[in-house]
Amino acid sequence: MLTVGVRAWRENREAAGFLVSIVFVCLASVRDVYLAGLFQRTSPLLIAGAAFTLCSLVFLPISFACHPGSLRALLSRPRELFWINVTSAMAWIAFFYALRIIEPSLVQILFFGIGPLSVVWIDQRVPGAAPAVPLTRAERPIHLGLLASLIFSVVVVVGGLSGAGPQPVGVAAVGVALAAGAGISISVNTLLCRKVNDAGVSAAALVALRFPGAVMLATVLAAVSRPDLPVVSSTNALAFVLIALLLIVFPIYVNQVGIALASPLTVRVVLATGPVLLFFLQLIEGRLSASPYSLAAAVLYAVFAISASLARRRAIRSALLV
Fold first, then answer.
1. Which residues neighbour 49 within 8 Å (Cβ) at sequence distance 6 or greater?
2. Whole-number pLDDT of residue 320
């Protein structure tokens, strides 16, 4: 009876995490379309600094009041907290700049696609992660297809076939490198966050302490670089605070709840649908042209990413039964 109860609890938790992840994908798609346009007019560092400062300002009081034990548990793990901050900073700032350079749906493909493709490699190198199960024979052709979809996305960007139109090859390559680097960082970050969630750290406590490193990095980069876009005037400051709260802080919290509830594989399955949704939201916004190559890349990625995640789940279950 106890075993049945535990299994039912895990299944309910996984289902809840699946639904929360769907909500996050919808919020993230709206966010990425809006921010990609916004970053043509103002510095990503400004938005990053404001949004991630708000994460701490909003969730630290909530955590002190409602989850003091979670804060203590997280602070008692300084190594994990340090690397969570490092990977968060690298992932989000690189992601913001990638959105500024290349088409958002292709940014998402590269950003989210690295996770399923490198899951075994990352699992082997993140301390405390679950033991990695080697790729099975059935998974290898799927991963090759996933890799092909990412390569096709890169060709679309570098070849000037995306909705953003032709770009200098060097600029397009920088955008690709930023999106892929952000994807590797966020994949490691997701595993680290799930590790501390499993140790009893709440999503609110993690959001409260996850981004000081990102604020520091954004501040340093803003100080050492000459701004190439005007900063926001004081009259628009309140609007940007609201934008940061609704489009960055709230989706980050929703995603953290999803990570805490569902397995990383479930989260990756849901995220795989994001680029297709984002492509159609781009059409509604109207800033970019409709590229059939970008849509093909998004659909190919979704098919192979979902297949890869489901095959990985079957491989893990088979290994546990041995």
1. 215, 218, 219, 222
2. 67
